[in-house]
Amino acid sequence: MSDQFDLFVHGTVFFDVVFTGLESLPVRGTEIQASGMGSCPGGIANLAIAASRLGARTSLAAAFGDDVYGDFCWSTLTEQEGVDLSCSRRFPDWHSPVTISMVVDRDRALLTHMHPSPVPTDELMASMPPARIGFAHLDAEPREWFGAAARSGMLLFADTGWDEDEKWSPAVLDQLEHFHAFLPNSVEAMAYTRTDDPHDALLALADRVPVAVVTCGGQGAMAIDSTTSEEEWVPSLPVNAHDPTGAGDVFGAAFVLGTLRGWPLRLRLRFANLCAALSTQHVGGSLAAPGWGDIIDWLARTRVRAAGGSATAAGQAEAYAFIEDVLPTSGRISVRRARATLARTSDAEADAAPRGER
Predict the structure, then answer these.
(1) Which 3 state secondary structure label does DSSP give 91?
(2) For the chain, how many structural domains are there in total?
């Protein structure tokens, strides 16, 4: 279908403000200075932007306020990032969700202001577009559109988040009956499966979905694809990480792209690990999501270091040599990280990559 999207995502879009260069978090009655600041669409926009930068035709359904935050997120997604918002809606007198991220010692603390969605999820999803893959965030509330999407032939992927009540209800996993793939991190996976080891959690999840993936941060990622009888573990790449915000979304988007291309499980995991690692080297969720230009640059630098005698770089260059074979022949191949910011120029980091062609 010429009008079919590669990826459809639904969720909440936040206006993210990221402060960097903090020596500590603020305490009551004090004021501290941040040396860097950037702003960008966040929340589900992280996944949508990461996928679009890799060339996936992406459609996003979300509620947007009619305030300046909503204006910025809407225009950034459509005009700069090429994300379709035909299923999204603007709502007057509804305050767009806003999150403040404070990065300290390569970790972050978040402060969010938001109001309940102005419409029920099912109302927003009434005009769901045709897409090859759909991506959802699972929580305690089942969504009717999961079943409808699966019956339409959409291949559904899901992740989840931290359970604030720490009850980790098994009912969340019961929603996986409609899903093709589930990609939690190791803490979430072990909590929901009541296991003490990430691999045991992976095995338990593989009984529920055809493709189970467990991300383990600095220890890499493991997965089982029962449709191909593949089981793989791929180590993470050693990088100088600055901010983990959105890395899981970038991993998911890259894994989706590998699925769309029909890559073997090992290559899907390697590519997702690489994209996530590259995102942590920069600051700010969707700001840090790499495009093909960033990936090409990384491979070129790695090969230069390998030629200079670095054994680590040589191993990475060999493991990721497949990138040359999977590069797109047209489209958004020159895309690099963006510097989207309400202030027009971001100083969240001094060495931010150029925006490149859009």
Answers:
(1) strand
(2) 2
